[in-house]
């Protein structure tokens, strides 16, 4: 038995050993196994890692104590649970809700399973058992399981794959069943999942039904089911769905929204519904990791570059457009109208981690961490009971978290992602033996490595503090490589082993490599410098021209008016903002705040983006105007090659004033479309044409046949020599915004509005 001088390591070792033996005995392999591609790393399961740090532990506890009961209650009150009882004939009634509501139940059960693995909870387990019993009772004799079609007409099942999402629901059930089995050892969900998978396998495949899901998810889930059962047919079925995507030989195409426009191996650009894309490419990465298919791997590499170099928000959000919850054009990254669905960021975490396993490259974990610490965490309030569906990077103060949504994919997705975070901390390579540390979070883990069990204990206050300590407890002294990720945002680091500084550390694919003979009690100290930095966006991102974003460590910051007593959307930083930081334990659950100077001599306060909208409503902004930064950048600047964001070099700042007269005005309107923003009236961004969707816009849609108005108000009188009006008209793209039948320009003279001559 492994001894440990550190609390928690031995407990985790015993618990993990019990789970490992249980899994091996319970589910024997069936069929010929698919060996992973030689280069693929091995994931360390969530059951092997226990976090007890000051950042993630409170979130895990809140998820267990607040988010899970909250989601259980909402699923109960909205009929999501009782749909299964009705489908089983245990109670009377019609189907309630949206046709894919089953998936929300499955995601809540998956999150509850992760929570049970971290902390046994008999009451929660009993609550889960009741729902699982209903699910099992609702399954048909042939293995089919879907409450919508069971209650509305089984004769229509599998007839509307693009819309009704049966395969999507099945995928979430497989994920929940695998998590439940791994956490508890019970087969109550797993056996139902196996029968459903067998039914789907009898229905779909070569020479059978050639359909694919409109909303991807089952692809990655089938691989998980294969991994826990060893049943080769499930992996082959996942590969079938991947291979059929974009192939309209036997069926009509579902189009761009479903990434069904081209076979995956021919795809190079990220398009369509953002969540669907992230789930699809997670499944593709899983299949490629086992097959080593060079075409699939090359497609993943091309699409990854398109996302990270042209369509990724600095917060790790993806999906710019409200219409279709979709990706936009290259560099189309508006702020106040950004969609950035919480589910899409969660999907990016899934995909990034799988690509990290495939390539052993820290660039993928960098993106995973960015999405996780910023967009994902913003998706759930500190109380664990309010959620963002949409995560804009600027707000006028009218965007707030909600307790639930009719389409509840985001709350139920958060509730399963948060407790699964321990499973993303480590990875292992077997030959040669290497242990990868991806995320820094205090806690204990026991890894099953080729050389035997390895205990690891992390200590530190990441992401607030710059120092991390890693303690190692190998079962016996042996040589292997410990690979510590040096985040892409970190430009200065130091490392010491047993207090002896490593002078010339080796870096491989973003990981600091320490290859040596390790013994119990060895200690590694890592220092990651976290200065506050101003980041700038590629000049093609029109919405961010003349602006910078603040980042410290992995955290992106924002300004809220509640901290600054003015509309922060009109803030401009001084050329030399003189940053200072302070940890405030009593603010927003404990955060490091950043303070900086503005161009007009004020001192402003910024807080982590994930923590915004927890206090009094008011404007918020991530991208802040920067004194001296041009709003007319050089578009063919070669220094941007291979980058979407980079730290600002203060030496590049000129003398340009941050605002024009119109930009200092306060706009007022008679009405504004929900998907548009009043601030577009004076944001300084000039459209390329009258149908420009790449920048924020203001419209009165859908008011027709009415008289509408806009006004500009200045705090002090200004003299204007020119006023131009540019209309948004999206007729060529099928929209219905038009130039008005008539319009006029007026100015205020005392108490009177007088017409102004214009051409």
Give the SSE map.
Elements: H1 9-26, E1 42-43, E2 49-51, H2 56-77, H3 82-87, H4 102-118, H5 122-138, H6 147-152, H7 161-164, H8 166-184, H9 188-203, H10 218-229, H11 232-244, H12 274-291, H13 294-310, H14 342-359, H15 362-378, E3 394-395, H16 409-417, E4 426-429, E5 434-437, E6 443-449, E7 452-460, E8 467-474, E9 478-485, E10 493-497, E11 500-501, E12 506-508, E13 511-518, E14 522-528, E15 533-537, E16 547-552, E17 555-560, H17 561-564, E18 572-573, E19 580-584, E20 591-597, E21 603-608, E22 620-621, E23 624-626, E24 645-647, E25 666-669, E26 710-713, E27 746-749, E28 752-755
Parallel strand pairs: 5-9, 18-23
Antiparallel strand pairs: 1-4, 2-6, 3-22, 4-5, 6-7, 7-8, 8-14, 9-13, 10-11, 10-14, 12-13, 15-16, 15-24, 16-17, 16-23, 17-21, 17-22, 19-20, 20-21, 25-26, 27-28
Explain the overall architecture.
This protein has 759 residues and is α+β, with helices and mostly antiparallel strands. The chain folds into five domains: 228 residues, no CATH class; 115 residues, no CATH class; 102 residues, Golgi alpha-mannosidase II (Immunoglobulin-like, Sandwich); 120 residues, no CATH class; 100 residues, no CATH class. The protein has 17 helices and 28 strands. Strands 3, 15, 16, 17, 18, 19, 20, 21, 22, 23 and 24 form an eleven-stranded mixed beta sheet that branches. It has a seven-stranded antiparallel beta sheet with strand order 2-6-7-8-14-10-11. α2 runs antiparallel to α4 and α10 packs parallel to α12. The longest helix has 22 residues.
């Amino acid at each position: 038995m492994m001894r440990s001088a550190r609390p928690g390591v031995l407990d985790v070792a015993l618990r993990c050993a019990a789970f490992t033996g249980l899994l091996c005995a319970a589910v024997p392999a069936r069929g010929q196994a698919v060996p992973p591609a030689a280069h693929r790393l091995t994931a360390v399961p969530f059951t092997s890692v226990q976090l007890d740090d000051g950042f993630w532990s409170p979130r895990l506890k809140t998820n267990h104590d607040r988010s899970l009961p909250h989601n259980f209650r909402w699923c109960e009150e909205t009929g999501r649970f009782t749909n299964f009882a009705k489908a089983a004939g245990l109670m009377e009634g019609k189907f309630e809700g949206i046709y894919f509501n089953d998936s929300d139940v499955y995601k809540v059960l998956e999150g509850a399973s992760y929570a049970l693995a971290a902390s046994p909870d008999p009451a929660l387990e009993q609550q889960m058992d009741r729902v699982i019993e209903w699910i099992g009772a609702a399954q048909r004799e042939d293995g089919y399981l879907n409450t919508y079609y069971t209650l509305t007409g089984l004769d229509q099942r599998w007839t509307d794959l693009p819309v009704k999402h049966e395969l999507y629901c099945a995928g979430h059930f497989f994920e929940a069943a695998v998590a439940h089995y791994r956490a508890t050892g019970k087969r109550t969900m797993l056996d139902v999942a196996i029968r459903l998978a067998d039914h789907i396998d009898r229905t779909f495949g070569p020479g059978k039904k050639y359909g694919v899901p409109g909303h991807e998810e089952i692809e990655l889930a089938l691989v998980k089911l294969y991994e826990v059962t060893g049943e080769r047919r499930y992996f082959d079925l996942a590969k079938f769905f991947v291979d059929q995507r974009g192939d309209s030989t036997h069926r009509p195409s579902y189009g761009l929204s479903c990434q069904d426009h081209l076979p995956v191996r021919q795809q190079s650009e990220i398009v369509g519904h953002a969540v669907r894309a992230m789930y699809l490419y997670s499944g593709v990465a899983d299949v490629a990791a086992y097959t080593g298919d060079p075409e699939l791997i090359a497609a993943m590499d091309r699409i990854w570059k398109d996302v990270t170099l042209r369509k990724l928000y600095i917060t790790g959000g993806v999906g710019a457009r409200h219409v279709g919850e979709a990706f936009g054009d290259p560099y189309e990254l508006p702020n106040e109208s950004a969609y950035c669905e919480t589910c899409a960021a969660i999907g990016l975490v899934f995909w990034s981690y799988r690509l990290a396993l495939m390539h052993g490259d820290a660039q993928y974990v960098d993106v995973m961490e960015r999405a996780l610490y910023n967009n994902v965490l913003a998706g759930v309030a500190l109380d664990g009971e309010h959620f963002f569906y949409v995560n804009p990077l600027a707000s006028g103060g009218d965007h707030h978290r909600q307790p639930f949504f009719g389409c509840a994919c985001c709350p139920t997705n958060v509730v399963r992602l948060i407790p699964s975070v321990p499973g993303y901390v480590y990875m292992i390579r077997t030959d040669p033996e290497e242990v990868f540390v991806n995320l820094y979070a205090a806690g204990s883990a026991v890894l099953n490595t080729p050389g035997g069990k390895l205990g690891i204990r992390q200590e530190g206050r990441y992401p607030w503090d710059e120092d991390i300590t890693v303690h190692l407890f190998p079962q016996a002294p042996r040589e292997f490589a410990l690979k510590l990720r040096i985040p892409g945002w970190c430009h200065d680091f130091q490392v010491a082993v047993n207090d002896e500084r490593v002078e010339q550390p080796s870096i491989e694919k973003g990981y600091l490599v320490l290859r040596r003979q390790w013994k119990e009690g060895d200690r590694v100290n890592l220092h990651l410098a976290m200065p506050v930095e101003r980041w700038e966006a590629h000049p093609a991102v029109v919405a961010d021209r003349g602006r910078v974003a603040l980042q410290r460590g992995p955290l992106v910051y924002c300004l809220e008016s509640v901290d600054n007593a003015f509309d922060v959307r009109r803030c401009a930083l001084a050329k030399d903002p003189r940053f200072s930081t302070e940890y405030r334990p009593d603010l927003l659950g404990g955060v490091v705040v950043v303070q900086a100077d503005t161009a007009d001599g004020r001192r402003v306060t910024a807080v982590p983006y994930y923590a915004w909208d927890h206090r009094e409503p008011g404007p918020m902004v991530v991208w802040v105007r920067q004194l001296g930064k041009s709003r007319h950048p050089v578009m063919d600047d070669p220094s941007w090659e291979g980058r979407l964001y980079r730290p600002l070099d203060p030496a590049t700042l000129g003398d340009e004033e941050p605002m024009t007269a119109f930009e200092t005005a306060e706009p007022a309107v008679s009405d504004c479309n929900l998907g548009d923003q009043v601030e577009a009236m004076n944001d300084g961004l000039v459209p390329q044409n009258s149908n420009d969707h790449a920048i924020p816009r203001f419209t009165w849609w859908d008011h027709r046949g009415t008289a509408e108005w806009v006004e500009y108000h200045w705090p002090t009188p200004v003299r204007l020599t020119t006023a131009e009006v540019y209309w948004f008209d999206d007729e060529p793209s099928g929209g219905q915004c038009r130039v008005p039948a008539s319009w006029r320009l007026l100015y205020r003279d005392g108490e009177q509005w007088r017409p102004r001559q214009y051409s």
